[in-house]
Amino acid sequence: MLRHRGVIFALLIVVSLVAVPLAVQIRFDFNFQEYFPEDDPVREDYRRLVADFPAEESEFIVLVGDDDIFSPAGTQALVELTRDLETAGWFSQVTGPVTLPPSVFGTFRNNYRDIVAGVPQSKGDYAELRERMASHPLLRNHLIGDDGNLVVLRAAMNPEHVTDLGREGARRYLAELLPQYETKFTEVVYTGFSGVRADFARVMQREQQVLFPAVVVALLLVLVFFLGRTWLVLIPLLATCAALTWTLAVMVLRDAPFTILSTGMPVLLVILGISDSLHIFYRYRQAICDKRPQHDTVLETFSELGRACFFTSLTTAVGFIARFAFERRGLATAGAAEAALHATAAPMVASAAALLAGLAVLTYSEFLGLAYLGLLLGLGILAALLTDLLLLPVALKRWVPSTLDIRDATPVAKLRP
Questions:
Q1: What is the pLDDT of residues 99-144, one digit of tens each?
Q2: How is 176-242 classified by DSSP, letter by letter?
Q3: How far apart are the C-alpha atoms of 208 and 202, rounded to whole Å?
């Protein structure tokens, strides 16, 4: 591999350049249907529901609360708000207290028509309208609350906008529109399935823009601490970012979107991916400081650590045992344990520090699922590091036979040439 390093490096550069334009096309899809297989009956039933009743997934709900909603000023403000929603272009239909067919109210139909048209009515007429709506079995808890001081406008989105991008556009419109009515109502906010989904998508995309750079900075500080202030600190970051770019490109080619669970993948990939790089670079730096030839140092580093990192990229504990397994044939257990601990303790601490630094950043995520994941992984890795350094050497010396042909005993060791 070293003999053809120029060709390999050029190939990696070309692959990365091809992957970049693909990676930026990654799409977001926070629909819970993504968690079910394509042929799952639950997913098929829900698909049929959405096809016949599209409002199930495409409805924004505007909550309007005020003690004087049913008054000349209140109803006219509702009419204006409804008209703004209907003419925005984002919504195909708006259902609310002032859009109902007059026949719903029976003998009160003419009064209702005049109230909506802005014709002044008596105070008793407005009170009766509230009572009729609050007592109507189809309107109560659908368009009006129990006390009559909270009503909702249900805005169904146009079919062409029923995407995460369309929901974000409608959310931005509502975020600009509703503050204009805060002086007319005590409360006016948007919510509902589409509203919450749009807000969640916004939070996730914002976190990608904030957490990813924060994690990179945290890891860079760890690299500088363990590798020194040299350009070497950039190589593990560049290698991991290249791996992330390839991963995103493959996701795009497979049309695999970012879902609720996978939005944290880029940050986690950088955190976990840099661990092995730091492990190898730390060992390489130690060898270079000992004035060993560079070519021999690269071969020795990857011979001793490369295979162990490959087979144990996610667990430092198994990595420690794998490192012990690659000791020379017939090595005394006591000597092997000390040798493995001496050779891997410092790199293990360095790689664990990188993991903990990155995961600590995740605990500040606004998405509680990702924050708790960062906390639990961080605590688990810290506990694993302590047990690796304190328990495993004792266990290896106490319970493993004094001499052992490791290469014959493990399938992995047989891969060694």
A1: 999 999 989 999 999 999 988 889 899 999 999 999 998 899 899 9
A2: HHGGGGTTTSSEEEEEHHHHHHHHHHHHHHHHHHHHHHHHHHHHHHHHHHHH-SSGGGHHHHHHHHH
A3: 10
The token pair at 381 is 């890795």
For residue 18, give the nearest of 246, 329, 198, 183 by alpha carbon. Answer: 246
Same-domain check for residues 243 and 169: no
How many residues does the structure list for the chain? 417
260-269 core/surface letters (b: 16 or more CB in 10 A; e: else): beebbebbbb
Q: Report which residue type is found at 58.
A: S
The tokens 């006219």 sit on which residue?
76
Q: Which parts of the chain sit beneath pLDDT 70?
A: 1-5, 32-35, 227-232, 261, 276-348, 350, 367-370, 372, 376, 380, 383-417
**Are residues 64 and 168 part of one domain?**
yes
Please give the model's pTM, rounded to 2 decimal places: 0.61
What does the alpha-carbon distance between residue 188 and residue 202 come to, in Å, rounded to a whole number? 21
Residues 298, 230 share a domain: yes
Last residue of a domain, one of 124, 151, 185: 185
Alpha helix segments (H runs only) across 53-161: 55-58, 72-86, 109-117, 123-135
Max Cα separation, the chain?
Answer: 101
Q: How far apart are CA 413 and CA 401, in angstroms?
A: 18
